[in-house]
Known about the structure:
alpha/beta, 40% helix, 13% strand, globular
Amino acid sequence: MTNDTTTTPDSTMPDSTMPDSTMPGSTAGGVPGQASAPGQEPRQITLPEDRYATELAFLAAYDSGPRPPGWLLTPRAVVTFVMGSAGDALSLPKGARPAAGVPRRLVIEQKFVGERALVERCVVTLAGERGLLLVGEPGTAKSMLSELLSAAVCGTSALTVQGTAGTTEDQLKYGWNYALLLAQGPTEQALVPSPVLTAMTRGAVARVEEVTRCLPEVQDALVSLLSDRRIAVPELAGGDGAQLHAAPGFTLIATANLRDKGVSEMSAALKRRFNFETVGPIGDVDAETALVRRQSRAAVERVGAAYQVDDAVLEALVTAFRDLRDGRSVEGWEVERPSTVMSTAEAVSVAGSLGLAAAYFPGDRDVLSLLPGHLLGVVRKDDPADAARLLGYWDGPVRRRAEQGSATWRALWDLRSVLES
Length: 421
């Protein structure tokens, strides 16, 4: 089942209706938007089950409807967790008894920008205990969506295998504690479960990132696992541990990068075990600009500095990314697309770099003057020859907008020499 939609990440939307003490993204250890769980040291990245623990506890008490086996939330509450409550404060029903510290009214922030229908299809797939495969270009929030879904369904997003050319079948099934293996022989105590096996026995959600980067023989291990819902342990033949069965609720979310489609093409047998959902770039320019602003502002605020990238610079940045990504400007002018992916994630990275440059080197230069150099760095990632395509973009849409009287684009046109150096 393949469906195209428009999506990308968002994890810094403010929640002004919540008391500061209960905001899931409240500051911890001086890092805005990256809360740590009680008793933990601040982290660069906080897992969604920790960062949004208040929201998850609230939604568990808010919706008491039917839940699939092993689920912490109802399917409807999972969708609300991912897509937010549209700025409305939800109220717990009378008689609901939330966990200590959970407010009775809460705005659920939007964490994923895109179509609600996509998230609903993903949730229905998981509720049916079928494998879910999220495919798309790099930087379209496939991993983030899989983390959010896992956290909401089973309370953890950490049962993860990162697919690489070096991933082995053991990392999808099980290994051994060799000290115990030598001392006792093959026993259940000596067996070291993989994240996937742990998810199976718990009835939780396992995640396999970049599954097409795994070798075909490693991918094939998933076929029997998703079909038979059990793992055989030949070394324990004759004992109770010879067959390890999946508990109700177990399923698997995999991600695949469309740019890596040919690395290790999935077999037809494995494809049949998944429902496919295609995650694409954001369709609305205003939504993408707002997201880039929030994410880059958060990066600057992490260092305790003021955000000094104005809206005109952000709009020019996002417009350039969209023009180069689509191969056509917003005015309809043809643009030669570079081979690299001009993703929203890359736009956030560039905007964050501009903000940090302004924070660390205040007054040295105009922030807009830094944009051409950063764009050149992005465009040349896959093919240095793509620098000529960026120069062609400057000689096309950038020049035309400058001629139409835009001060921002005129300033960018005057910076053309940066791309020639």
